[in-house]
Design a protein that fits this description.
By secondary structure, the protein is mostly helical. The chain is built from six helices and no strands.
């Protein structure tokens, strides 16, 4: 016999790399992520979102919110001034003042619609088309009903009706796209 000592048995058998190459029963684990230390936060904005990051992310929403706020402030002010000075000759100019902030809201909305991709533009166009036709049908039909004796409605209800139909059109299109697939 030989004088060599046998090797001690291994505690755990070594698996070659190619033992289970495509077994569906073996779970493959991704490599552990490498963790780097975060850069130190210092200064006034440590632990919070910097204002420029919030401005960059939510620029359109912030501008739209300020435009709506300006519209509401001018609207309340003009209604108050016109109610207090109902005999003044300049009350018509004051009553039209809320149109300026409303024009800003319109320009922001058109700019936002211009920045949409093709699918979103198509969806918005279909919803807007639906809202225009549905509003025209409802107001035209109600005009006939007014001549039959129903009470007269204010023309200021047309825009909220159109916005409601726009939202209903967007909801219907979203549901149709969701359940079609």
């Amino acid at each position: 016999m030989s004088d060599q000592n046998p090797a001690p048995p291994a505690e755990v058998p070594v698996d070659p790399l190619f033992t289970h190459p495509a077994s569906p029963f073996e779970r493959t684990n991704p490599p552990a992520p490498v963790e780097f230390a975060s850069p130190p936060q210092s200064g006034v904005w440590a632990g919070t979102v910097a204002p420029m990051a919030a401005w960059t992310t939510y620029k359109t929403q912030i501008q739209f919110g300020f435009a709506i706020l300006a519209y509401l402030m001018v609207l309340v002010g003009s209604v108050t001034v016109v109610a207090a000075n109902s005999d003044a000759s300049w009350r018509y100019f004051v009553a039209v003042l809320p149109v300026a902030p409303a024009g800003i809201v319109i320009s922001l909305t058109v700019r936002r619609l211009g920045r949409l991709d093709e699918v979103q533009k198509r969806t918005q166009m279909q919803a807007l088309g639906f809202s225009m036709v549905a509003t025209a049908l409802v107001t035209f039909g109600y005009g006939f009903l007014e001549s039959a004796g129903l009470p007269h409605l204010s023309p200021t209800l047309v825009l909220p009706l159109m916005a409601a139909f726009w939202g209903a059109g967007l909801l219907a299109l979203a549901l149709r796209n969701r359940f079609r697939r």
